[in-house]
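Hi F.,

I've been meaning to write this up properly since the lab meeting, where we talked about keeping a consistent format for the predictions we share between groups. The idea is simple: the sequence comes first, exactly as it goes in, then the structure tokens exactly as they come out, then a line or two of notes. No screenshots and no reformatting. I'm using this chain as the first example so we have something concrete to point to.
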Amino acid sequence: MTRIAQEDLVDSLAQAFQFISHQHPPDFVRALRRALATETHAPARAAIEQLLVNSRLAALGRRPVCQDTGVGQVFLRVGCGVQFFRRDGAQPWGLQAVADEGVRRAYRDPVNPLRATMVDDPLGRRRNTRDNTPAAVHCEIVEGEALEVLVVAKGGGGDVKARFATLEPSDSVADWAIAQLPGMGAGWCPPGTLGIGIGGTPEQAMLLAKLSLFDPIDMDLLRSRGAQGVEEALRLEVYQRANALGIGAQGLGGTSTVLDVKLRTAPCHAATIPVALIPNCAATRYVRFMLDGNGPARIDEPPPSLWDGIPDRFDLPDAERVNLDHLSADTVRQWRIGQTLLLSGRVLTARDAAHKRLVDLLARGAALPVDLRGRVVYYVGPVDAVGDEAVGPAGPTTATRMDRFVEPLMAQAGLLAMIGKAERGSDAIAAIARHGGAYLSATGGAAYLLSRAIQSARLLAFEDLGMEAIYEFELVDFPVTVAVDSRGRTIHSFIQTRAASQRQAPP
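Output, unedited:
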């Protein structure tokens, strides 16, 4: 019998969530480096370089790699010979309460505060719980006398793109998986890993897909020795076909959309093939540990050599420098998709809630609390600042959520351009073209790097919205790619059209 103090599990969980907020798994960093070595498309190379620099800076600064610090997910494998107790002699907590306390401590850590994501009452007020609880807890009772724990912080960009289908036995799983990718867009912040779960019941297939994401990245070894068995053959086929689509890093084109394809299977009903697909984004965050009753876990940090040769700053020597304080419509009309820019000067911030308030004010004919004429808005909800930071990690959020607001803000308020991540919908693109504006793509998953280009932050409106309030940031050399230009041409649309035409091509 192994007796494990629940206080040790709480301490270990808090330590683990803090650790993964700023540390990428080593196999992911090595896979990114291999992707960079083979990538020739300039916008994609720039995106991967930013991800690598961000990884190094986050590890050194012990600050989050992404502003979306994720849903706390805890997977427990509890040996039958494990007995939980509390050192104070009180009745043991349930495992949900233990996990929640670990998440609470990690996300409220004053040295490295993490952004609270969870809302309760999902169909009602959607009030933020303020401490990122509750955790998502999965528990399996297994043989033995040890406690195995997998701790994951999964952001919205990846999980929101999850797909599920019940195929017929004669259907091709590879064809189905490849058909999903263009519709998933770039909101999951590629390059990353695709997890596929096959078999079981619907909920089992989804869990298989999720768990597969945390198996070691070994696609380079699989490619060098060749597939052995049908599961490895499927992994290799989906990997090759996915990268042949040309979606690329951040959806900007290129050869590295997928770093690996992972797969787990389970027996299923004879009449069906349940199949699930879940991507892991460029903010891949997880760690495993074991408890044996001898105190909290010890989590070892990767060696600094993991980032050898990666600089501590990002530069685009061929980029056009843009002064936002003197930005004109004529300048914006000269930008072309795929062009890289370094932005300096003042930019406004706003996300979903602030956009809705602004548009509601316009609909009532009321004055706006900020003047948007000729301005650029950054879709961002940063982590709280610490020390001498102007803001905490501040990467872009998915732009499509703001699509419905583009027309009124450009037509009635004079908004000139926007910064976010991933593609825009057809209505938003049409509005941008109609008003001669632009949409600029910042690198999702490079939040700490991007925050270092923000020199100051000033609250302007809607303070009650917290991280969704409207701020004015002062930028210096903030890197972006022109994703939609004033003619309505979009780099993401071009890539998705090409992907759709190729998705049935043989590997």
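Notes:
Residues 42-61 form the longest helix (20 residues).
The chain has a mean pLDDT of 95.

If this format works for you, I'll send the rest the same way.

G.
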